[in-house]
Amino acid sequence: MARLLIDENLPRALAPALRAAGHHAEDLRDARARGAVDEEVFERARASRLTRVSRDIGFGNIARFPLRTHSGIVLVRFPNSIPARIVTESIVFAITRLSDDDLAGALIVVEPGRVRIRRAT
Question: What is the structure's pLDDT at 95?
Answer without folding.
Answer: 97
